[in-house]
Write a structure and sequence with these properties.
Layout: E1 7-10, H1 16-27, E2 31-34, H2 41-54, E3 58-60, H3 68-78, E4 83-86, H4 101-129, E5 132-137, H5 150-170, E6 175-182, H6 188-201, H7 205-213, H8 225-235, E7 247-250
Parallel strand pairs: 1-2, 1-4, 2-3, 4-5, 5-6, 6-7
The structure holds nicotinamide-adenine-dinucleotide (NAD).
């Protein structure tokens, strides 16, 4: 399967799942545009190194996904894209009565509104070329809820709704729009929490992962960034041409419960 000749934008991709998705798309031959809100030399070096490793063009374009104009400018600066992966996301945990308003606004902006802006900016080019793949990285929390995560759960459910609406607006035009819903994924951020959890619970690594961190994931195994990346690559393959407006869970059975 080759994505040679396709340009992919992956929002929020200087770490974690976004970087894993960029890695998988580059390995399939796509040109990749990495993004986050920072503009450090190491961000640009990360893109250059990833591109060199896979023999593809790669750039880092800073843009703050809390700002609609910057979301749209990201697409314009990239020169449009054939593959758009809306991955940037943030979380905050609090009972709803105490949930800080600014956190609610930021989560809705990054997790939901950024996808509205990037999709609106990317679609005209996709339509002109008669081919496009939009993948929204939602979450198991796009399909189920947990307490104290009101903004995150609301934003991820809304992104699934946006995915379905965009799929209907683009059906039959060579463009698909789907959401990938990961369960708990082993990102560097999650990996960093394991030693602390081991200490707090007095458990070894395997037990703390199985009994504490992955209680809701029936497989009792983390999903990996490679698996999420592979799912995105599949959605960009010809086998997925008629898959649109749906969700694919990568959650070890979480949403089957
Ligand atoms: P992460 O914190 O490693 O990555 C988030 C990325 O978004 C980073 O690159 C960060 O720089 C970027 N980002 C944050 N705010 C931004 C902003 N204002 N503008 C631009 N970029 C911004 O987290 P992750 O776990 O890799 O999460 C990636 C996506 O996957 C998120 O949408 C998250 O909700 C979703 N997800 C993660 C898990 C998990 O277990 N890790 C599970 C389900 C869904």
């Amino acid at each position: 399967m080759t994505l040679v000749g396709k340009r992919a934008i992956i929002t929020g991709s200087n770490s974690g799942i976004g970087l894993g998705v960029a890695e998988a798309l580059a390995a399939a031959g796509a040109e990749v545009i990495l993004n986050s809100f920072t503009d450090r030399p190491e961000d640009h070096e990360l893109a250059a190194e990833l591109g060199a490793r896979h023999g593809v063009a790669a750039r880092y374009i800073p843009a703050d996904m809390t700002r609609g104009a910057e979301c749209r400018a990201l697409v314009a600066t990239a020169g449009g894209c054939d593959i758009l992966v809306n991955n940037a996301g943030i979380q905050f945990v609090s009972p709803i009565e105490e949930f800080p308003v600014e956190k609610w606004d930021a989560i809705l902006a990054v997790n939901l509104s950024s996808a509205f802006h990037t999709i609106a900016a990317a679609l005209p080019g996709m339509r002109a070329r008669g081919w496009g793949r939009i993948v929204d990285i939602a979450s198991a929390h796009g399909l189920t809820a947990s307490p104290y995560k009101s903004a995150y759960v609301a934003s991820k459910h809304a992104v699934v709704g946006l995915t379905r609406a965009v799929a209907l607006e683009t059906a039959g035009q060579g463009i698909t729009c789907n959401a990938v819903c990961p369960g708990y994924v082993l990102t560097p951020l999650v990996e960093a929490q394991i030693p602390e959890q081991m200490k707090v619970h007095g458990m070894d690594r395997e037990t703390v992962i199985r009994e504490v961190m992955l209680q809701r994931q029936p497989s009792r195994q983390f999903a990996t960034t490679e698996q999420v990346g592979g799912t995105v690559v599949f959605l960009c393959s010809p086998a997925a041409d008629q898959i649109t407006g749906t969700t694919i869970s990568v959650d070890g059975g979480w949403t089957a419960l």
